[in-house]
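User: Predict the structure for this protein chain, please.
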Amino acid sequence: MAAAQGRLSDGAGGMDDAKGTEEEARHKGSHHGSGGNGGNGGSTAPPAFAAAVEALRAARLRPQIEVEATRAPQRLAPHAYALEAAVVDGDEDLADGRLVLLHDPAGHDAWHGTFRLVTLVRAELEPEMAADPLLPEVCWSWLTGALQARGLTYGEPSGTVTRASSHYFGGLSARPSASQIEIRASWTPREGLGGVPDTAAHLSSWCDLLAQVAGLPPAAPGDASVVTLPQRRGPQSR
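Assistant: Here is the predicted structure, written as structure tokens:
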């Protein structure tokens, strides 16, 4: 799986960034495995955090998306659990990303809660799509729309949408130009019974966003309001 590299930060918290350069997990498999790969989600964690992590592990997701636990950043909150995912088409990744669940039992003023979700999503684009001046606004609306489509309540959303182009020269001149979109965001999920947010539903919404960025049709048929990116010219080989 191609892990989303780069820096993950909680824009609403004003806390230190956490480098996303941890070693990738090389094995394939489900995210239902041990919590040790995902951070401090073990038996010593607060009950609310342990329940939220268990809901992430038990979530049922669409088959085109491979999800597995990965090393969580250690500086963003007292407790953290991380997942990485890739939208897979055969042996190619159409999009990938990371989702980090943060928990501070004492609460955080900027979060307005004790939990926070932080994400990085990226995918390659056709150059003409990358040149669309409305693309950042559209991509941000995909994130908020994915949450709203599942009836999720959240607060303090924060993030950036970045597009970048690469042009190759010299010994790399045979490569076609490439464009990429990155969505970095964080939000506070509403806490339910026992102070536990519905993390499974938030994970499903995040996977809906990944699928949309990858150009997959929506999971629920008949929703004409959903607009997806066209199929990538050259998805990354896995």
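The radius of gyration is 17 Å.
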